[in-house]
Design a protein that fits this description.
450 residues; alpha/beta; Endonuclease, Chain A; 18-stranded mixed sheet; two-stranded parallel sheet; 20 strands; globular
Length: 450
């Protein structure tokens, strides 16, 4: 009870910024700032690159990119290769391959790292690389790993791996700065400063199997969690590396060994992207980027959300978009690991359905992905849930990829998830039991703290 009260009191004063000012013209550049491995591109170079890469909707996308830069302060980064990874097996396989090829350093930041067959196998691989002379450093969240025995981490530490437990649960660790409610929810892996991963996938047995995504059911074994991750190569890797190192330094738990964390990163692809970060007390750049993209949508908003308890501003932007004729579709979980969150989320259905938003619930798998594609040219993959906890209290990371090419990949994936989802209609929703309505109402009261 005391811990719960402390969490509530810690949260009581926090709030998202009013973003009404984003509806007025910002002091946005005509051509957004674009950087690559050699520095900042000239106005002419950036304009030419964006014209090539943003596709048929380049005018709207270019305007959005400028507004997004003004709101978040983050530049676009050119010259990247971005690979979409679906579900646990593909993601873990790609991460394992990168780890196996490491020569200098491996930096891992994760919310959950379980002691289960998947976690033990991944830990063994990291220990083996450390023994080969590669410096492995890990930031793990102490709430996300609350069920993981300390011996699991001690074994890695004894092998020479550097470990940083983020915000330990015990107030005795740092009594003058105990921040139990602020968590590190990021999932980042950077290998040799040359390849990086980010998205929603944790290191836990829930990701040992694939979901039903693009595959028929296999036998009687339960499907794995449905999630999305990305692999990045090119200049943008440095932004994710910096995010990890900055987080390590912020915890004041000792310096990392000297390594070549920032090697030269020449262009290796044609993707233009923006790496966004959020943390308590920051400028809420992920929240602002989402708001701007939703507010500026002219054709479509397709969101896949594991935990969806929107604040009043995001909800209003979605409702207004649907009312002006934008195709707004949201895929949400049917099965979830949080009973109360499920009911809080469903408390928004009536209002959204009445406005014309199409709501779908994914069947067969627990949905954990956090993605969106807007107007087919603004796409994001990351760790951020569409709720107050992610926007206000967690350290999060999202990558925004500009352009129609990547947008088509995202739309294809969204379409596949729609095939495995049930649409919720307003007529159907009106007939749900009174008891369910009461539970939704009660859960909505607690929505801020979920």
């Amino acid at each position: 009870m005391g811990l719960t009260l402390a969490c509530l009191l810690a949260s009581a004063c926090a709030r998202l910024p009013e973003v009404n000012y984003l509806k007025a013209p910002l002091n946005a550049p005509v051509t957004p700032r674009v950087v690559d491995g050699q520095g900042t591109l000239s106005h002419e170079e950036a304009s030419s690159l964006l014209t090539k890469r943003l596709g048929h909707s380049k005018v709207d996308a270019k305007t959005l990119a400028g507004l997004e830069e003004a709101a978040t302060g983050r530049p676009l980064i050119a010259g990247n290769k971005v690979t979409l990874l679906f579900d646990g097996p593909k993601t873990i396989s790609a991460m394992t391959a990168a780890v196996s090829g490491a020569k200098d350093s491996i930096n891992l930041e994760t919310y959950i790292f379980d002691q289960d067959p998947l976690g033990l196998t991944f830990a063994d691989r990291l220990i083996a690389k450390q023994k080969e002379g590669v410096q492995v450093s890990i930031i793990y969240d102490c709430v996300g790993t609350l069920g993981t025995p300390q011996a699991f981490f001690d074994r890695m530490q004894e092998a020479g791996i550097r470990l940083l437990p983020f915000h330990p649960v015990s107030p005795l660790h740092r009594p003058w700065n105990w921040q139990i409610n602020n968590r590190d929810h990021r999932k980042i892996l950077v290998v040799d400063g040359k390849v990086a991963f980010a998205g929603g996938v944790n290191i836990t047995a829930a990701y040992s199997r694939s979901s039903l995504f693009r595959s028929p059911p296999q036998g009687t074994a339960p499907a794995g969690w449905r999630d999305t991750h990305i692999q990045i190569e090119g200049p943008a890797v440095a932004a994710l590396q910096w995010m990890f190192l900055d987080n390590w330094a912020s915890q004041k738990e000792g310096d990392l060994p000297e390594r070549d964390y920032f090697p030269a990163l020449p262009p290796v692809g044609d993707k233009v992207l923006r790496v966004l970060r959020s943390e308590p007390g920051s400028n809420h750049e992920i929240f602002k980027a989402y708001f701007l993209a939703i507010q500026g949508a002219t054709k479509s908003i397709h969101i896949t959300a594991a935990y969806f308890i929107p604040d009043v501003q995001i909800l209003k932007a979605l409702l207004e978009a649907a009312r002006r004729g934008v195709d707004v579709k949201i895929i949400l979980p049917k099965a979830s690991d949080s009973w109360l969150t499920t009911h809080a989320r469903r408390s928004f259905y009536t209002e959204m359905l009445r406005a014309g938003i199409k709501v779908h619930e994914l069947r067969g798998s627990v949905l954990h992905a956090k993605t969106a594609v807007i107007d087919g040219s603004w796409s994001t993959v990351g760790s951020t849930n569409m709720d107050m906890r992610s926007f206000l209290h967690n350290k999060e990371v999202n990558v925004v990829v500009m352009g129609d090419g990547f947008g088509r990949e995202m739309e294809d994936a969204f379409g596949e998830d729609l095939k495995d989802s049930n649409e919720i209609t307003l007529a159907q929703w009106k007939h749900r039991p009174v008891g369910q309505r009461f539970t939704e109402w009660f859960a909505r009261l607690l929505a801020y703290w979920l």
